[in-house]
Design goal:
heterotrimer; A mainly alpha; B mainly alpha; C mainly alpha; B: mainly alpha; 81% helix; C: mainly alpha
Chain lengths: 171, 112, 86
């Protein structure tokens, strides 16, 4: 990832530091001077030592459009997660167990590692689909009730919904 | 006001636990390992998230820590499901006879 | 009122736990048992949260967090081990 203005390493360290601090503060649940100082010191040491270790962490684009897409993404995500659970409950509760499993192949336009990871995770938590294998731009997805086999159509049904948000967030 | 929030929280707890129950049922009823992973991963994610939300309604002071557990689960639950599915496929786990298409196995045969 | 709802949730989660345990015992493959184990650990997190509510002790949530972390790592390493990567 090429970043404008700030150099790559400084940017990575800053994002890592901010993430660690956020986790530390959430874990403590209160803002007090001694907690802040200890957290800041430890976070700084870890961030400096491991700034390149989690580079996929920093692939998020810090632009207003990406933040808006992020909100849209989570809204869509929770809607889909809820739908998938209702569908699954319906399948599990019906006596005949109406499944039609298949492993289909789909394609993604996303290029970054984090974008692809988020896509795979999203697919796993949405109605009836589970990512089994990833190879470059190809994803192999297990489908409890297959609706389409052709790559284009399966991609349109499984991938496109999330991809439009993730493309803005990670590229 | 506090009472309403308490009741919403309690209902969220019950709702979350019901999804867990559907997941358990799916785990027992589903015909093969992939379908079982699907049943397990989806229901435990939503079920636990609803439980955490319910707990946050009952004890708002715990909100941040509950949120942290929730964020962690959203990221790790699908990852472990994918790793298990991936391992199952590489080990050639038995697929339900209902499974008609397996593009992954076809592509791997093509390469070998 | 709320106590009753918490107990009801615990009962439902308990039933889910038993069903997952059925899959854990029945298998048939080792990987099926790992899948069941994964579900069991996540249900256990719900139990810890419910216990924290009943006993009104926020410190239990730290246990839940560490438990989530360790069970995730455990499942990943068992899966990788079964794949023969170690």
């Amino acid at each position: 990832m090429i970043s404008k203005g700030i150099s790559g390493k400084g940017r990575n360290t800053a994002i890592m530091f901010a993430t660690l601090m956020l986790f530390w503060l959430m874990l403590n649940g209160k803002l007090e001077a001694d907690i802040l100082i200890v957290g800041a010191l430890v976070a700084l040491v870890i961030a400096v030592l491991y700034r390149d270790g989690l580079s996929f962490f920093t692939e998020f684009r810090f632009t207003p459009a990406a933040f808006i897409a992020g909100f849209g993404y989570y809204g869509y995500f929770f809607k889909e997660l809820f739908k998938s659970n209702i569908k699954l409950a319906a399948i599990v509760l019906s006596p005949s167990l109406p499944v039609k499993p298949a492993i289909v192949k789909v394609r993604t336009k996303l290029k970054t590692r984090m974008g692809r990871l988020m896509l795979a995770n999203s697919i796993t938590l949405t109605p009836g689909t589970l990512t089994v294998e990833m190879e470059g731009e190809w994803l192999y997805v297990h489908w409890v009730r297959m609706e389409a086999d052709a790559i284009e159509e399966a991609t349109a049904r499984i991938v496109s919904g999330f991809e439009s948000y993730l493309e803005v967030m990670y590229g | 006001m506090g009472l309403i929030l308490d009741i919403i929280g309690g209902l969220l707890l019950v709702g979350g636990a019901s999804f867990l129950l559907f997941g358990g049922l799916g785990l027992v009823r589903m015909p093969d390992i992939y379908n079982r992973i699907q049943a397990g991963a989806k229901t435990t994610t939503l079920g636990t998230l609803l439980t955490l939300a319910g707990a946050a309604c009952l004890q708002p002071a715990w909100g941040w820590k509950l949120l942290l557990i929730g964020v962690f689960l959203i990221f790790t639950n699908p990852v472990s499901a994918q790793v298990l599915a991936n391992t199952a496929h590489r080990r050639g786990a038995e697929k339900s006879p209902l499974t008609k298409i397996d593009r992954l196995a076809e592509d791997q045969e093509g390469k070998a | 009122m709320v106590e009753i709802l918490i107990m009801l949730a615990a009962g439902l989660a308990g039933a889910a736990f038993l069903l997952a345990l059925v899959r854990f015992i029945r298998g048939p493959s080792r990987l099926d048992r790992v899948v069941a184990f994964d579900v069991l650990t996540v249900i256990a997190i719900t139990f810890i949260v419910l216990a924290a509510l009943v006993e009104n002790r926020g410190i239990y949530l730290d246990a839940a967090l560490v438990y989530a972390l360790l069970s995730f790592l455990g499942v990943i390493s068992i899966a990788r081990y079964l794949e023969g990567r170690f």
